[in-house]
Design a protein that fits this description.
The structure is a single chain. This protein is α+β, with helices and mostly antiparallel strands. The strands form 2 sheets. It has a 5-stranded antiparallel β-sheet with strand order 1-10-9-6-7. The N and C termini lie close together (9 Å). It is globular. It has helices at 15-19, 55-78, 87-115, 120-124, 130-134, 199-202, 223-226, 237-253, 255-272, and strands at 6-12, 26-32, 38-45, 147-153, 156-162, 166-171, 176-177, 204-209, 215-221, 278-284.
């Protein structure tokens, strides 16, 4: 807790993954500056496709790189080194931010392949990607993952996303929205990815000016949350209710007991819901 904001993250292995002896492919992170001037959260959901054999690493790389890049970006805003005053300049700055995250993610997976060359485990279930992998092409697909990240800095919430999962924002006036534009290609078990060829142009973003609309809480989560609710796709009512309930639990329990609650609640939520890995993170006033 810093500056009146509580920042948290939690990833748990899915019930199906436990039964099928599949490792957790989700990653998450949260970060708060001691003086309360900057808060960051990020969630990555590595793909369950067997051809994405290193997706757990891919999601870990994505959230750690997003955290580092957002720290530098936020500090530049605080120091007045970045013109963030107009919508056009914000778009330009965020495009530079997302390009940097994507380039650094590709650099991380390139370094991993240098240290750990492609092997039989990578090829065993590569399916239609096997020929490409053997030729040394499309290897980024091995690390396929989604990414959602949010940062509160100065008077802004900066939100970025590639792939599925959801970002729920609760405003002080009681309204709720998912402000990041949705990619209609994310449907059912299909999602866009950090490994897509068009990732530089398909990654989405949104900026909330808290001087115009004051934010009470910002939550992000992997699709293991929304997939736990029947008929949730159009209304997102189940997802909204999930984060409303988390907000109530935080108010009821306080910070320390809330963290313990997540440790117990999320594995059971996976068992009775999507059975998928689940990651949640939040910045809560």
């Amino acid at each position: 807790m810093s500056g009146g904001f509580f920042t948290f993250h939690k990833s748990v292995i899915g019930y199906r993954h436990i039964n099928e002896k599949i490792p957790c492919q989700d990653s998450s992170v949260s970060y708060t500056v001691d003086d309360g001037s900057l808060q960051i959260i990020a969630v990555g959901d590595g793909h369950g496709d067997p051809a994405c054999h290193r997706s757990a690493k891919g999601s870990e790389f994505a959230v750690s790189i997003a955290e580092k890049c957002l720290k530098e970006f936020g500090k530049a805003i605080i120091a007045g080194e970045m013109d963030f005053t107009s919508p056009r300049r914000r778009r330009e700055c965020i495009e530079q931010l997302t390009n940097t995250i994507i380039l650094k993610w590709n650099e991380a997976i390139h370094n991993d392949l240098l240290e750990n060359e492609i092997n039989d485990n990578d090829l065993r279930e590569a399916g239609s990607y096997e020929a490409a992998y053997r030729e040394g092409s499309r290897l980024e697909h091995l690390f396929g993952t989604t990414l959602i990240a949010a940062m509160k800095v100065s008077n802004y919430f900066i939100l970025i996303q590639q792939g599925d999962g959801r970002c729920d924002v609760f405003y002080e006036d009681g309204s709720i929205e998912q402000p990041i534009p949705w990619d209609d290609r994310c449907k059912g078990s299909i999602t866009t990815s950090m490994c897509d060829k068009d990732v530089f142009t398909s990654i989405r973003s949104s900026v909330i000016d808290t001087g115009e609309r004051k934010v009470a809480a910002c939550y992000i989560g992997s699709d293991g949350v929304e997939d736990s609710y029947y008929d949730n796709e159009e209304t997102q009512f189940g997802t909204h209710r999930f984060y409303m309930d988390l907000s109530c639990k935080l108010c009821e329990l306080g910070v320390e007991e809330f963290v313990e609650y997540l440790n117990d609640f999320l594995p059971e939520f996976s068992r009775t819901g999507s059975a998928d890995d689940i990651s949640v993170a939040g910045i809560v006033d």
